[in-house]
Design goal:
This protein is mainly alpha-helical. The chain has helices at 3-6, 34-57, 61-64, 99-103, 122-127, 133-139, 154-160, 206-212, 216-290, 301-304, 317-340, 342-361, 368-391, 424-427, 443-446, 448-482, 495-506, 508-534, 541-575, 579-591, 594-627, 645-683, 696-702, and strands spanning 86-89, 110-113, 120-121, 166-167, 170-173, 176-179, 181-184, 187-190, 195-197, 203-205, 395-401, 432-439. Among the domains are: 86-201, no CATH class; 395-439, no CATH class. It catalyses: choline(out) + n H(+)(in) = choline(in) + n H(+)(out).
Length: 712
């Protein structure tokens, strides 16, 4: 087919001439947006290279395992921590300092250990060193690596934190040692003691430890709840899967029934709204008439001014008169819209029924969202892994952690090997040179932030490409259905796979182009959200107002681009042109049918939302009765749960997502059929020479000439 014959729109968007050879998605195509395709492939290769480089330099164990004051994580091989998997704090009492909240680091020496901890103050250990050397041999396991000088003065040892001031019975949690708190007769204790000596001879209360480990109880409680939730999932997972399977079957059933019930559901809702508003008008009139003659009811809103109690306004006739006028206006608007838009509403309902019929002929489309889900899951996994490896790339960076918040050396980088020889410890008593984070001075480490930004951008691009590929594939399959003159005889074999092959082979560049535009806007929105988060504490009202306006504008732009891209992909699937041309043609076509677009969009949104609520609500009610043992037949099969709401909420949310997946295919089907329908109206006139491809029901609604007989 000559490419010039396929052009449908002129420079000003006028309809192209009739092409008798056109039968839906063209097969004689060529590659579109080749430059963008090449750039997309190069970016993917670069993204893979970035992942490899991050994998070489990064070590996720630095995130999984806690890191000691020497920049070595617990359990690290080829170090003195190889067999020590638990992080031990020399003086956990310092963790109650406000410095912890500022630097997210406890200002005390931290080492790795893996032994049972008993209660020993350092002073007592040194005092009995000559008589009980076994105590020193035990205690020095908790000292800095290589320290073995019990004759060094206690003051110097505690000042330099060569050894902890004390060790107390602890238990590991999140790979860290925390005091083993317990309650005895309602009193908080550690090792059955309510007081202890802090290693400097001072008697301290156990509650001081509690403050130092502030929040641990909440974390422990959360851990307990988490374990119970995990147990609930472990014993109820198959019932959850059964619930999701029921949701899938209900979603399929709803899509099939839409062929017969779309009109009924919509008109029941519309007349229900009209009836409710009518009742509201009657009630307002009744209240207005009932208040007649009651003292004070004839006052105006202006007379009584602003009142915090809304009930005061309900005692005024003027209030009910205003309500009645507003409801009357809404009622009149709805009735007028139904009168003037009745045919367009009928067309929208007919297209919904046609969409149900199309899916019935191409059932494989219902399972394509699984492909999109897998592609997006791969993108998310690769992005997350790359981000973690990038974040853990680099060498240990040490900073000064001081007990005093006014220490001028606080947060400055330092060298742990030479720190004790500097004057920092003199000016800031108790200051420590401890590990802060992983970084470096090489060219690679300097651009870690840029790499993270690139990682996020390519991730957004790939996710949008996966969505675009799914939309274009489904559009091509449903367009094959619409442009089949004899349905289903003329529908091509394997329309979904054919459409997928065309999209990948010819239009990767166009899909990548559309995804690139959307990814740029989304990245800008992410940056704006980051700036907004950073500037929340600022007092500059103009800055906050400007950020709010920018966020709103880019949110609207993203929604508009998604709408344009979606319809552009439909035109690409049908005509095989580049992205810009397809977007322009789709835009002009929609503008010539703007009222139909609005009506169809709202009718479709309502029915699909109703379907999601019905599926999720129906399965949720069934799951509630099942997990609360209110179904006698299955009462013995219900597992014993800690929290019945865990599988219940999982089933409800999962059912909604399952329904959303199926209905997204249906929404794409309706949008595709609508564009094909608009094309059909502009291409053909229903004559024998130019017959319509639309269904007989759509033809009857339009009141056109009789459909030409379809060939057997």
């Amino acid at each position: 087919m000559d490419r010039d014959e396929e052009n449908y729109y002129g420079r000003h968007g006028e309809p192209r001439k009739f092409d008798p050879k056109f039968r839906g998605p063209i097969h004689n195509r060529h590659c579109t947006d080749i430059i963008c395709c090449v750039i997309f492939i190069v970016v993917i290769l670069g993204y893979i290279a970035l992942g490899v480089v991050a994998w070489v330099h990064g070590d996720p164990r630095k995130v999984i395992y806690p890191t000691d004051s020497y920049g070595q994580f617990c359990g690290q091989r080829d170090t003195h921590n190889e067999n020590k998997t638990i992080l031990f704090y020399f003086n956990i009492l310092k963790c109650a300092s406000p410095v912890v909240l500022i630097n997210l680091q406890c200002p005390t020496t931290q080492v790795s250990e893996n032994v049972e901890i008993k209660y020993f103050p350092y002073i007592l250990v040194i005092a009995s060193y000559r008589y009980r050397p076994d105590q020193w041999n035990y205690f020095r396991q908790f000292c800095k690596p290589g320290f073995n000088n019990p004759r060094k003065s206690v003051a110097q040892v505690l000042r330099d934190e060569d050894c902890p001031s004390m060790i107390i019975p602890s238990r590991p949690f999140l790979k860290r040692c925390f005091p083993d708190f317990s309650t005895k007769n309602g009193v908080l204790t550690v090792a059955n003691q309510t007081t202890f000596k802090d290693g400097r001879g001072k008697t301290r209360n156990v509650t001081d430890l509690r403050e130092a480990a502030n929040g641990i109880n909440n974390v422990l409680d959360a851990r307990s709840v988490g374990m119970k939730i995990f147990e609930d999932y472990a014993i109820s997972w198959y019932w959850i899967l059964i619930g999701l399977f029921i949701a899938m079957m209900l979603s399929l059933l709803f899509l099939v029934l839409l062929r017969f019930t779309a009109g009924v559901l919509f008109w029941i809702f519309i007349f229900g709204v009209i009836g409710i508003i009518g009742y509201g008008i009657w009630h307002c009139y009744w209240e207005y008439d009932h208040l007649k003659g009651i003292p004070g009811s004839d006052l105006t809103v202006y007379d009584i001014g602003f009142q915090t109690d809304f009930k005061v306004y309900l005692q005024l006739r003027q209030t009910w008169l205003a309500f009645m006028i507003i409801l009357c206006g809404v009622e009149v608007i709805i009735i007028l819209m139904l009168i003037f838009l009745r045919n367009r509403i009928r067309i929208a309902i007919a297209l919904l029924k046609e969409g149900s019929r199309a899916i019935g002929y191409i059932m494989s489309t219902l399972f394509y969202p699984i492909v999109t889900f897998l592609l997006i899951a791969i993108c998310i996994s690769y992005w997350a892994v790359t981000a973690v490896f990038l974040a853990t790339s680099g060498e240990p960076v040490y900073k000064v952690m001081a007990n005093q918040t006014l220490c001028k050396y606080a947060n400055l980088t330092c060298d742990p090997e030479t720190f004790n020889t500097t004057n920092v410890t003199k000016l800031c008593p108790g200051a420590q040179c401890t590990f802060a984070f992983y970084g470096g001075e090489s060219l690679y480490h300097k651009y870690i932030f840029i790499f993270q930004l690139a990682n996020a951008f390519v991730f957004l691009w790939l996710v949008n490409f996966a969505i675009a590929l799914g939309q274009c594939t489904l559009a091509g399959a449903f367009a094959s259905y619409y442009w089949a003159y004899r349905k289903p005889a003329d529908i091509p074999l394997w329309p979904l796979f054919s459409s997928f092959g065309r999209a990948i082979r010819y239009h990767t560049g166009s899909l990548a182009f559309g995804a690139l535009i959307l990814a740029i806007v989304q990245l800008i929105r992410v940056i704006l959200e980051y700036l907004d988060h950073k500037l929340k504490g600022t007092q500059n009202s103009f800055t906050r107002f400007l950020l709010c306006c920018l966020k709103c504008c880019f949110w609207c732009l993203e929604k508009f681009l998604k709408f344009i891209n979606r319809n552009a992909y439909i035109m690409i699937a049908i005509y095989g042109k580049n992205f810009c041309t397809s977007a322009k043609e789709a835009f002009f076509l929609l503008m010539r049918n703007v009222v139909r677009v609005a009506v169809l969009d709202k009718v479709t949104d309502f029915l699909l939302f109703l379907g999601k609520i019905l599926v999720a609500g129906g399965v949720g009610v069934l799951a509630f009765f099942f997990f609360t043992q209110r179904i006698p037949v299955f009462a013995q099969e219900v597992p014993m749960l800690n929290y019945y709401w865990v599988p219940l909420l999982t089933v409800i949310i999962g059912s909604y997502l399952v329904a959303h997946g199926f209905f997204s295919v249906y929404a794409m089907c309706v949008d595709t059929l609508f564009l094909c329908f608009c094309e059909d109206l502009e291409r053909n006139d229903g004559s024998t020479a130019k017959p319509y491809f639309m269904s007989a029901s759509l033809h009857r609604i339009l009141g056109k000439k009789k459909l030409s007989p379809k060939k057997a």
